[in-house]
Design a protein that fits this description.
- The protein is an alpha/beta fold.
- Helix content is 30%, strand content 24%.
- The protein contains nine helices and 16 strands.
- Strands 1, 3, 4, 5, 6, 7 and 16 form a seven-stranded mixed sheet that branches.
- The relative contact order is 0.16.
Length: 360
């Protein structure tokens, strides 16, 4: 009789990055920053990856700003735009438009009938300018990181151009050859995106991490708040002798400790939302209650997994002192059916880099 293969534990590394325009000015600078974060999160008690597999998670839109690398400029302008704490984003946009006016006008002209607003048309044309080149940089970067660190990497997300539509897509890379092993798209773009980002309507997919008994599914930001998204996953037949993780990649533009404004205006508020929470919850509290805990309860109710959990990876962002985001990453795990305890980890800092790491 064939001996059953030993199932390795999984080291989870959730990287709450603090990214600025400085990191996005060149491929080597960004790669080295990510490498430092991954090595810092690696289990210090293990000098080799043979004792476990490693899953690294980055926040939403990590790849979106890679287009900064696609704008050629002399060194003095590079220093002017990327080595400053002054808001020069508008000047950077003007410079980019001047140097790429023909291509921008081409996208603008080809799509003006299909956009619902001028704002959506302008943003679509802007992000379409470098979409193909950005995707190539994104693939090369995270494929390189995955192979170099021998880790499975949930590479945040980026705006991807498919059949003349932009989607907010997340990709998972595997370490054997650095290829993409899972892709997920945002179903519910928020109001900041809805005028130029399409809803991703393909059925959700899961990925089984080799040499473990763990399956993962990736949710992008606002999707994790929506009961309808979990109904899609509930239609997938999952093995009862395995463990499951929901991975949430997220980015919040604005302040983390602000009063919760409620669900985004583009969606109907779910019926289980308590009206009193609109007056008492901060954004961070609402994230835990209506996203992380919602996902955890969905897995708990299935009552078929050997273990389960939710990892929510948030990002901290300050691009040219203009585009700013804050967030607090969280991990919620139940390692096995027989274990009554629940592992709960929080970054505890919503405006700084933070790396959460644990074994599952």
């Amino acid at each position: 009789m064939k001996q059953q293969q030993q199932q390795l534990p999984l080291q989870i590394i959730s990287i709450q990055t603090h990214l600025t325009q400085y990191h996005y000015q060149s491929y080597p600078i960004l790669r080295d920053y990510f490498l430092r974060c991954i090595h810092f999160g690696k289990n210090p008690s293990s000098t080799t990856s043979s004792h476990h597999r490693t899953l690294v998670i980055f926040p939403e839109c990590t790849g979106t700003w890679l287009y900064y690398m696609c704008v050629p400029m002399p060194n003095f302008l590079r220093r002017f735009f990327f080595h400053t704490s002054t808001n020069r984003h508008f000047l950077f946009i003007i410079y980019t438009l001047i140097t790429h006016m023909r291509l921008f006008c081409k996208h603008f002209y080809e799509n003006y009938r299909s956009r619902t607003s001028w704002s959506g048309l302008i943003q679509y044309s802007w992000f379409s300018l470098f979409a193909d080149r950005t995707f190539e940089i994104y693939k090369n970067l995270f494929s390189d990181l995955s192979r170099q660190t021998n880790s499975f990497i949930v590479a945040g997300s980026l705006f991807t151009l498919k059949n003349k539509h932009l989607y907010n897509m997340s990709y998972v890379f595997e370490p054997t050859d650095g290829s993409i092993c899972l892709q997920s798209g945002k179903i519910y773009p928020v109001s900041d995106e809805s005028s130029f980002i399409h809803s991703y309507q393909q059925l959700p997919l899961i990925y089984s991490i080799p040499e473990t008994n763990i399956d993962i599914g990736v949710l992008i930001c606002a999707d994790s708040w929506m009961p309808e998204v979990y109904e899609r996953y509930n239609r997938i037949e999952l093995h009862s002798n395995r463990r499951f993780l929901f991975i949430i990649v997220a980015l919040n533009l604005g302040q983390w400790d602000m009063p919760w404004p409620g669900y985004d205006s583009t969606v109907a508020t779910p019926t289980d939302v308590e009206s009193k929470h609109l007056k008492t919850y901060s954004l961070g509290q609402a994230w835990f209650h209506y996203a992380v805990n919602r996902a955890f309860q969905v897995l708990e109710k299935r009552n078929c997994f050997q273990g389960y959990g939710v990892i929510c990876c948030q990002g901290v962002l300050n691009l040219m002192n203009d585009i700013q985001g804050e967030g607090e990453s969280m991990i919620l795990l139940k390692r096995s059916k027989d274990d009554d305890s629940i592992i709960s980890m929080k970054a505890d800092r919503f405006n700084e880099e933070n790396i959460l790491s644990c074994l599952f």
